[in-house]
Design brief:
Structural class: alpha+beta
Shape: globular
Number of helices: 11
Order of helices and strands: HEEEHEEEEHHHHEEEEHHHHH
Largest sheet: 6 strands, antiparallel
Helix content: 40-55%
Number of strands: 11
Length: 334
């Protein structure tokens, strides 16, 4: 965005920009009123107003989030000279959560549990006519993942000249594919459908994309940002996403995984049905599917070293992952 367009947007706010820096998909601004973040917005205004209401209610609950700044006309959406929409957020002078720091990981888990309790408390204050915010059915999603895996295997089998990467896919394919089948069966046997329906009827939100990039650490305080993927869903899905990603980065270190579970439950106790869904989702070989699907839909004449390394790492971590799941299942039965 050129300087003239930037100026046209900035002029629509009450304060002055003293410094601006381009960052990932946005512009970080230093102002008289603190740090702000300017981002292009292409979604619906209704969605934006909903998010604004949720974030303001969470702030009233004492939960630190990136609330929106309204312009001089009292609007959240600000247009440049070409009609492109932008939003401005109250931001934080800090950094992302350090996934190599166990204490920060556990603090992020506590923050998530507190966010979930806050979202539950404010659910009665939110209009529930937001069906478009509902997440797709996970059972259908995993079913399609399984079909994609089978298509990829058929393609690899029929290749005359195979790379080491392709041989590695075939060598371990059956093991990971059966994990997917078992995970799908567990999910179908769970009370997933009831919980999903309940989340929608009661207006219960989850963050939708809870990861280290959306957790800001500033002055020893954690703030949760980027609620663009907020949706009606049972909240254990947020915890699953964060737990899985951390475990993948930490070689499925069992001590850390169970510490995360305990830390979450210190703030918000998981129900038996939620634990069953969490276990089913963790059982699915998500990383293997992603790598194989990326290969199948990409340039098969040139396989990136990054994908080779990722597949090698998934296979290397498999024993640790299964040990973690085995212990998790044992603890559920106690």
């Amino acid at each position: 965005m050129g300087n003239e367009k930037l100026t046209a947007v900035y002029d629509q706010y009450e304060w002055k920009i003293t410094k601006s820096i381009r960052t990932r998909g946005a512009i970080l601004c230093e102002t008289e009123e603190g740090v702000k973040l300017l981002k292009e917005f292409r979604g619906s205004l209704g969605r934006l107003e909903l998010e604004d209401k949720v974030l303001n209610l969470l702030s009233e609950e004492g939960i630190s989030t990136d609330t929106y700044v309204r312009n001089k006309n009292g609007q959240i959406l600000t247009l440049d000279s070409d009609g492109t929409g932008y939003v401005l957020k109250n931001w934080f002078d800090g950094r992302e959560c350090d996934v190599k720091n166990a204490q920060e990981i556990l603090a992020a888990v506590r923050s998530l549990a507190r966010l979930h309790k806050g979202l539950l408390r404010i659910s009665s204050k939110i209009t529930r006519d937001v069906s478009q915010e509902e997440e797709p059915d996970l059972r259908e999603e995993l079913f399609h993942h399984q079909k994609e895996l089978k298509r990829a295997r058929s393609f690899v089998r029929n290749r005359r000249k195979k790379s080491e990467f392709e041989y590695a896919i075939l060598k371990d394919f059956e093991h990971f594919y059966m994990q997917g089948e078992n995970a799908l069966e567990l999910l179908q046997k769970s009370d997933y459908e009831r919980r999903k329906k309940e989340a929608k009827e009661k207006g219960i939100f989850c963050h939708g994309n809870y990861n280290q990039h959306n957790i800001m650490v500033s002055m020893r305080r954690m703030s949760i940002v980027n609620f663009e993927h907020m949706n009606h869903n049972f909240q254990v899905m947020d915890f699953y996403l964060f737990l899985r990603k951390i475990m993948e980065k930490c070689n499925w270190e069992r001590h850390l995984g169970f510490a995360m579970l305990e830390e979450y439950e210190r703030e918000r106790k998981l129900e038996e049905g939620e634990r069953a869904i969490l276990f089913a989702m963790l059982s699915y070989p998500e990383k293997f599917w992603k790598i194989v699907n990326h290969y199948y839909n990409g340039n098969k004449a040139w396989i990136s070293q990054k994908d080779v390394d990722k597949l090698t790492n998934v296979i290397h971590q498999e024993e640790e992952k299964q040990q973690f799941l085995s212990e998790m299942r044992g603890k559920q039965k106690e």
